[in-house]
């Protein structure tokens, strides 16, 4: 099966089992907006919890806030979003499809990278044991040619984007012979800038003065509360402020399911440090964040860093943590060294001092900031695509199973009476009552036990408890493990502890250093 087919199956699966629905579906949907169903919202809440506890609870010097979506419009002038939060868009005149010019070039670069890797793989197969990868990369003419092309395109793209030279950017698209994937032609329009912020009106004014924006990131809500939190929390540098919340961007090209949405959620943390120490902290946060991802056990090879060639106007270092989605490696989280840009600008625009008095140095200054910014929905997609498995079983049957980390699974335990009579439902209900205050449980008595196991596999429930006739006599049940499908007999009294050991998020958190 191709990755494309697998991705389509995953999308269909998430709908069928109540994870993700297209928004406003009965009205034919709303482009790039999605709703989370009964399973999806549990999964999302568990991811939020994992992030919040890892950030706020495990770091004594990080606190969490929840700032409003609407903010004073001047904030977005200060942050640079009114002037510079733009994407360069280009249309194909034949297909009438719209693209981001930089994304067309990035896809082209990714294809060159793929060609290089394929050539290296070919070499590895040809030379076997004696293969010297470094030497091969340095001398193979095909690798060298593609690498030279790649570097040249990258360089020109970065230069054009940095100087906002859209004529050069368009020429580069033409020079690379990039065609529209739909029409197959190079009939491109000029490139235009497009601001990604959604605006609306505050109160009953309909003139320019009433315009406010839906926040395109949660970070600014943290910056403008920097002094409030620092003072009321008596925080000493270095310290961080974390927040989870909705953000809105009028994305030009909204594709790839919940990867790029117009309404989405971010989990952001701004870490305030002494000027001059920021790059050290940047390196630390890069490592801490990668460790957080890897602890989920989806495979270390699924993650990589991607250092930015083109730094945003506010940053002096930036990297992405990329995840190997079904459509390739793409950004999951951004880690940025944002200097004192944001606090400095808010100080300038508001006329209020946003400084920290450093008792050791006996002086005040505007702190520097390291930001970690992760998309909650992208993490949901990463977790779903990492967990989704179509398995062929030994008995000839097949199953679809979501092998989530148990701490993230929406339902932790399914309680299943073998049949619907003889007092089994009553005992199963007692088992439920004993577990439900600590764990999200599901009771299911419909259909054969095999079908019920499949349903639980399909939503990723780590444990199934089956109550049978013998349970009435020995007070024991059959416990089935989602991944191994092994079954064991355990006492009902021992269940809470067994389940806790398997699913409690604290064991996941303890893996983090
Ligand atoms: P991209 O280059 O993919 O547009 P970005 O660099 O603009 O992303 P940031 O501004 O750094 O993204 O936002 C931080 C995080 O928020 C991203 O790493 C991503 O996980 C998430 N994010 C950004 N835009 C979207 C979106 N439209 N839909 C879902 N998640 C998003």
From TrEMBL:
Gene3D superfamilies: 3.30.40.230, Anticodon-binding domain, Bira Bifunctional Protein, Domain 2. GO terms for molecular function: ATP binding; bis(5'-nucleosyl)-tetraphosphatase (asymmetrical) activity; glycine-tRNA ligase activity. The keyword Aminoacyl-tRNA synthetase applies. ATP binds at residues 249-251, 259-264, 331-332, 375-378. The keyword Metal-binding does not apply. It catalyses: tRNA(Gly) + glycine + ATP = glycyl-tRNA(Gly) + AMP + diphosphate. Residues 197-406 form the Aminoacyl-transfer RNA synthetases class-II family profile domain. One of its GO terms (biological process) is diadenosine tetraphosphate biosynthetic process. Transmembrane segments: none annotated. Belongs to the class-II aminoacyl-tRNA synthetase family. This is Glycine--tRNA ligase.
């Amino acid at each position: 099966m191709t990755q494309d087919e697998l991705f389509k199956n995953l999308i269909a699966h998430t709908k069928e089992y109540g994870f993700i629905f297209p928004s406003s579906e009965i009205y034919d949907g709303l482009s790039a907006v999605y709703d989370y169903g009964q399973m999806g919202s549990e999964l999302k809440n568990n991811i939020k919890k994992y992030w919040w506890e890892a950030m706020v609870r495990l770091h004594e010097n990080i606190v969490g806030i929840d700032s409003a979506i609407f903010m004073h419009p001047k904030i977005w002038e200060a942050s640079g979003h009114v002037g510079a939060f733009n994407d360069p868009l280009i249309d194909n005149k034949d297909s009438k499809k719209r693209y981001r010019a930089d994304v067309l070039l990035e896809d082209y670069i990714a294809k060159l990278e793929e060609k290089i890797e394929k050539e290296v793989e070919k070499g590895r197969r040809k030379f076997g044991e004696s293969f010297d990868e470094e030497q091969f990369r340095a001398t193979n003419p095909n690798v060298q040619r593609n690498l030279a092309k790649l570097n040249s395109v990258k360089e020109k793209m970065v230069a054009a984007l940095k100087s906002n030279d859209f004529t050069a950017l368009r020429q580069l698209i033409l020079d690379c012979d990039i065609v529209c994937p739909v029409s197959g032609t190079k009939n491109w329009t000029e490139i235009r800038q497009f601001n990604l912020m959604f605006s609306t009106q505050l109160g009953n004014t309909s003139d320019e003065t009433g315009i406010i924006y839906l926040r395109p990131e949660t970070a600014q809500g943290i910056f403008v509360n920097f002094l409030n939190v620092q003072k009321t929390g008596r925080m000493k540098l270095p310290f961080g402020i974390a927040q989870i919340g909705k953000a809105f961007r009028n994305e030009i090209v909204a594709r790839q399911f919940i990867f790029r949405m117009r309404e989405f959620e971010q989990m952001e943390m701004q870490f305030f440090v002494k000027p001059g120490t920021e790059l050290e902290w940047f390196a630390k946060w890069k490592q801490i964040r990668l460790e957080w991802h890897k602890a989920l056990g989806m495979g270390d090879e699924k993650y990589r860093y991607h250092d930015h060639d083109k730094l945003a106007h506010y940053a002096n270092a930036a990297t992405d943590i990329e995840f190997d989605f079904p459509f390739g490696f793409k950004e999951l989280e951004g880690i940025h060294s944002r200097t004192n840009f944001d606090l400095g600008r808010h100080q300038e625009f508001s006329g209020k001092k946003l400084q920290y008095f450093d008792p050791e140095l006996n002086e005040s200054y505007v702190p520097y900031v390291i930001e970690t910014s992760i998309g909650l929905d992208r993490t949901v997609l990463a977790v779903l695509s990492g967990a989704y498995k179509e398995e062929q079983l030994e008995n000839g049957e097949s199953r679809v199973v979501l092998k989530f980390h148990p701490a993230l699974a929406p339902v932790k335990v399914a309680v299943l009476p073998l049949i619907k009579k003889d007092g089994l439902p009553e005992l199963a209900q007692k088992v439920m009552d004993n577990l439900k205050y600590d764990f999200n449980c599901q009771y299911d008595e419909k259909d054969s036990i095999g079908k019920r196991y499949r349903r639980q596999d399909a939503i990723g429930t780590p444990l199934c408890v089956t109550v049978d006739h013998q349970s009435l006599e020995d007070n024991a049940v059959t416990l089935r493990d989602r991944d191994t499908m092994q079954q064991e007999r355990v006492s009902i009294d021992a269940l809470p502890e067994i389940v806790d050991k398997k699913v409690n998020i604290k064991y996941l958190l303890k893996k983090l250093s």
